[in-house]
């Protein structure tokens, strides 16, 4: 376990590969004591070098594409074998085989959402090389499993099982997570709220962006529908804001200090152990790409090659629709299509469950729209979901293989035709001084708004194809000389398509645009400072609301009012005012519910009402109620702060509540004296700062797990961070070595040239093809 004590963050700035100090004072990788190894391995055409640098990044040098991705699979398995195994089992519906009966339902849902289309169309959607690349990657994973024999990561010993061989098709597995299901959650949330409080009130408390009043078509019975239906997918019944908080921007060479573009990207995900992303460098004829990708997939999802840099933020496309099917009272496996009864497709599969002698039979049902996720025999209804992930070519992030080989804006846009899921705002820059932004993803063309579940029996509610890439929002070399995205509303006013209605508030994008717009000679250090920026536009907005009512505040509130009014609105971990403000936001929401939502509606409204929705409603209140709400909630917040953090206001700290804990799922099974956990660490920022961090009960479990700063004037001056580290193996020196960097808001160099890589290599692996009787085995 790493003990950070009371370490304070230093002034942010990226480490440079050629500087006198690289990423602080990290100790030398212990592997340097035995830095060279040669591994004879079956399946290679020629020798492959893997040079691992001080920060755990494998730089892979191969002489052909097949060997390159074989070695990527080998390296990924070496660092993340248990993560790969659980990733595969979660998506194939085989968790219960090792984890027992508690995972039967999640396994059933994973199998329900499995891609069951034409395999030929599926592979061809990604490009002609993809199947061969995935086959090589799978062989590399399997080669490492064979190589390590019984010396498996500790998790396999704790759970008493071995990893199974990897197949090329495992790279095609879909993810149906809360992030992917958000559109479906929102359809059910709006339905539940409309059923409880009526249409007008529902759209007040769960508004769309842009504002839209959904039509209540009378051909569907929406009674009893709520997000609880999706609890097996989401792990809960409440609706949270969209699960994203990413930032990305590219600055034109005319605005950078070097005369070449800069690109910064920090996609936010749950802060897990190990990290959800894996950094790798792939070099072979026609390949020289570095950056982060999904550990279980070949290629690089965000990074750069010799010509272009690329990053992204989630674009909350509406890629799902829920259909209410009418089922026959005589046969619930029969449903209505227009005026005819049609049999559902039934698939029966067996689950091998740990602790059970006999397999468990699961039944999977499908209508013409897709999987049946809910049934109500009393009202003769079933709920089917149609989602873009059922279409060929929608395995998340696999389209990155095409992007990795793009060389300019035109080829980049062409490559994005193969990136169909997840939907992203892709940010681009190239060495020829082009910059751009384009939204990409498979977006259904529908004749309705997609805000509520629709009637399955009525063919009026069918998709009519997908929006062409060239019709999606984009911006190429804009006059402001930068492009930026922060999960904000990207829909142009004249857009003929319903792209989506659930975007993040504009605080982060306004802050990014404000900072970039003021600078004329932007450096990577400026980008690093902006990536880690904790200034809160939301805080300034709320504090401005209370200023007119200072005179009405009782004497007891003056001290905390002074604390807020003299605060710089920076949510630093050491800030007393930041702690007070965050609790105040929660109290504002609570007081609003108590005072401005009737008692009968309150139980359901409080499930869906978000803090920023309340902040947006405050200016609509009359002066006296607004004054009373803000002052009373502030007094309550001060009392809660005292209860949580003590009576001395000067000792309050936002970071004392906003704590990040990396918890290994098997920590409780570890042998005595062994810790698999990392932490605890104080964090700054919140959901609406550029350094976007959040978690339940003021904690932090979501944020920028990966950051990259790419300098197109000299690729070796680029930098990154991937917390907690590159490896998922607790015995590896790279299990947690990025945490101290992240805490200091520091970066490691993203080395690219062979000379820079050689300078900082701590471990070399030479993979040699096995030779049998003088013949190389392939």
Please characterize this protein's 3D structure.
Residues 1-33, 236-241 and 773-778 have low confidence and may be disordered. Helix 1 (65-92) crosses helix 3 (104-112) and helix 1 (65-92) packs across helix 5 (130-148). 29% of the residues lie in helices and 20% in strands. It has 778 residues and is of the alpha+beta class. A hairpin with a 4-residue loop joins strand 18 and strand 19 (435-440). 51% of the residues are buried. It is globular and about 85 Å long. An eleven-stranded mixed β-sheet has the order 1-29-2-3-7-8-9-10-18-19-21. Strands 22-4-5-26-27-28 form a six-stranded antiparallel β-sheet. The chain is built from 22 helices and 31 strands. The longest helix has 28 residues, at 65-92.
What key attributes describe this structure?
22 helices, alpha+beta, eleven-stranded mixed β-sheet, six-stranded antiparallel β-sheet, 778 residues
């Amino acid at each position: 376990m790493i003990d950070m004590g009371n370490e304070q963050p230093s002034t942010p700035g990226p480490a440079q590969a050629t500087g006198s100090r690289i990423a602080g004072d990290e100790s030398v990788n212990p592997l340097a004591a035995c830095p060279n190894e040669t591994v004879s391995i079956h399946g290679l055409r020629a020798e492959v070098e893997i040079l691992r640098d001080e920060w755990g990044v494998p730089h892979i040098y191969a002489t052909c594409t097949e060997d390159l991705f074989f070695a990527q699979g080998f390296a990924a398995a070496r660092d993340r074998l248990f993560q790969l195994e659980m990733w595969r089992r979660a998506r194939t519906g085989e968790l219960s085989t090792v984890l027992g009966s508690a995972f039967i339902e999640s396994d059933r849902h994973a199998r329900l959402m499995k891609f069951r289309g034409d395999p030929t169309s599926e592979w061809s959607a990604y490009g002609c090389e993809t199947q061969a690349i995935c086959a090589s990657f799978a062989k590399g994973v399997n080669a490492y499993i064979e190589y390590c024999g019984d010396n498996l990561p500790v998790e396999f010993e704790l759970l008493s099982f071995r990893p199974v061989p990897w197949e090329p098709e495992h790279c095609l597995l879909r993810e149906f997570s809360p992030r992917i299901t958000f559109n479906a959650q929102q359809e059910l949330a709006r339905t539940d709220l409309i059923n409880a409080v009526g249409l007008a009130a529902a759209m007040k408390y769960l508004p769309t962006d842009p504002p839209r009043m959904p039509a209540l078509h009378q051909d569907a019975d929406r009674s009893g529908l709520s997000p609880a239906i999706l609890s097996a997918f989401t792990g809960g019944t409440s609706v949270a804001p969209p699960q994203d908080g990413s930032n990305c921007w590219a600055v034109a060479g005319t605005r950078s200090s070097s005369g070449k573009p800069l690109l910064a990207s920090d996609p936010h995900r749950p802060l897990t152990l190990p990290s959800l992303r894996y950094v790798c460098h792939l070099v072979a004829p026609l390949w020289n790409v570095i950056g982060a990708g999904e550990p279980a997939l070949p290629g690089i999802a965000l990074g750069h090659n010799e010509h272009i840099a690329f990053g992204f933020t989630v674009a909350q496309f509406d890629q799902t629709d829920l259909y209410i099917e009418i089922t026959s009272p005589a046969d619930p496996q029969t449903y209505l299509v227009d005026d005819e009864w049609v049999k559902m497709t039934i698939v029966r599969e067996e689950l091998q469950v740990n602790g059970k002698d006999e397999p468990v039979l699961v039944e999977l049902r499908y209508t013409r729209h897709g999987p049946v996720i809910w049934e109500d025999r009393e009202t003769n209804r079933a709920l089917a979901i149609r989602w873009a992930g059922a279409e060929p070519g929608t395995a998340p992030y696999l389209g990155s293989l095409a992007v990795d080989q793009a060389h300019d804006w035109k080829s980049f846009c062409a490559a994005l035709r193969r990136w169909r899921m997840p939907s992203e705002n892709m940010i681009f820059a190239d060495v020829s001084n082009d910059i751009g932004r384009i939204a990409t993803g498979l977006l259904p063309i529908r004749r309705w708004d997609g805000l509520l579940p629709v009637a399955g029996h009525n063919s009026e509610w069918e998709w009519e194809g997908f929006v062409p890439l060239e019709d999606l929002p984009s911006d190429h070399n804009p006059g402001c000389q930068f492009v930026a995205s922060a999960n904000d509303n990207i829909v142009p006013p004249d857009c003929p398509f319903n792209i989506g209605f659930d975007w993040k508030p504009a605080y982060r994008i306004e802050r990014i645009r404000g900072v970039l717009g003021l600078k004329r000679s932007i450096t990577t250090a400026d980008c690093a400072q902006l990536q880690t920026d904790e200034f809160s536009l939301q805080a300034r907005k709320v504090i401005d609301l209370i200023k007119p009512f200072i005179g009405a505040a009782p004497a007891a509130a003056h001290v905390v009012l002074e604390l807020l009014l003299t605060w710089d609105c920076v949510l630093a971990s050491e800030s007393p005012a930041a702690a007070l403000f965050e609790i105040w936001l929660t109290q504002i929401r609570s007081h609003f519910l108590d005072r401005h939502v009737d008692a009968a509606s309150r139980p359901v409204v409080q499930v869906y009402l978000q803090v920023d929705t309340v902040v947006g409603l405050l200016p609509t209140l009359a002066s006296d109620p607004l004054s009373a709400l803000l002052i009373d909630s502030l007094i309550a917040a001060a009392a809660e702060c005292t209860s949580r953090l003590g009576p001395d206001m000067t000792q309050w700290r936002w970071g004392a509540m906003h704590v990040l804990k990396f918890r290994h799922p098997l920590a409780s099974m570890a042998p005595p004296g062994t810790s698999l956990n990392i932490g605890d660490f104080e964090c700054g920022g919140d959901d609406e700062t550029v350094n976007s961090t959040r978690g339940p009960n003021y904690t932090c479990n979501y944020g920028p797990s990966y950051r990259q700063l790419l300098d197109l004037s000299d690729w070796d001056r680029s930098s990154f961070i991937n917390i907690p580290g590159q490896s998922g193996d607790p015995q590896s020196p790279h299990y947690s070595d990025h945490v101290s960097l992240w805490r200091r808001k520091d970066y490691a160099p993203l080395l690219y040239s062979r000379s820079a890589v050689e300078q900082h290599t701590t471990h070399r692996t030479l993979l040699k093809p096995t030779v049998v009787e003088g013949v190389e085995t392939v």
